[in-house]
Amino acid sequence: MRIVLLGGPGSGKGTQAKKLTEKLGVPQISTGDIFRAALKEGTPMGLKAKTFMDKGELVPDDVVIGVVEERLAKPDLEKGFMLDGFPRTLAQAEALDKILTSLKKTIDHAILVDVPDEELVARLSGRRTCRDSACGKMYHIMFNPPKAEGKCDTCGGDLYQRDDDNEKTIRERLAVYNSATSPLIDYYDGQGLLRRVKGVGPIGEIFASIEKVLG
Ligand code: AMP
To answer: Could you tell me if residue 168 is inside a domain?
Structure first.
């Protein structure tokens, strides 16, 4: 099954993507994670991406599309994939369609995790992530706190706040989402692929709604 996950920053799509990939046994392809990993390794692509990420802006389409094209050419995608955080612009969505056509594949579902803007700001400013990249578990200081402050319940790793999860950058990311990414809702709706899920409430309930729309 080939899925695109849409939703604003902090909509919980990363959390749902992790659960879904476990259930479906398909890889999660998160462009944000790819950029953060590249930055950690200090590659030129990672350093370039950082200049945009720190401001809450989008990394230029040609860079992102190149990264995804390379990833989609890897041989581990026979059962499908879950795209998380890509596409984010119409140009990226059109490029994705082209890449898939050349691979003789199509998207099966575009799932929108729908959350109001005010809720997104509250969520993002309290978000914390486990620094151990193999774990990467996410918490929220109010809605889903760890048992011991600053420590991951699962692996004991340190929790950190992403550089781009500060109020100013959050507002910019939301503005970018509303102008550049939300047109994708109509794009996939027009193709009959959009599945809208309410992204407010317990994580398990949201996951159940996603399972339901996938049939
Ligand atoms: P995320 O982890 O999905 O919230 O992405 C973090 C940041 O990485 C975004 O705010 C962008 O700066 C950059 N980024 C991730 N995916 C994309 C994309 N598809 N297009 C442009 N920029 C992206």
So the answer is: no
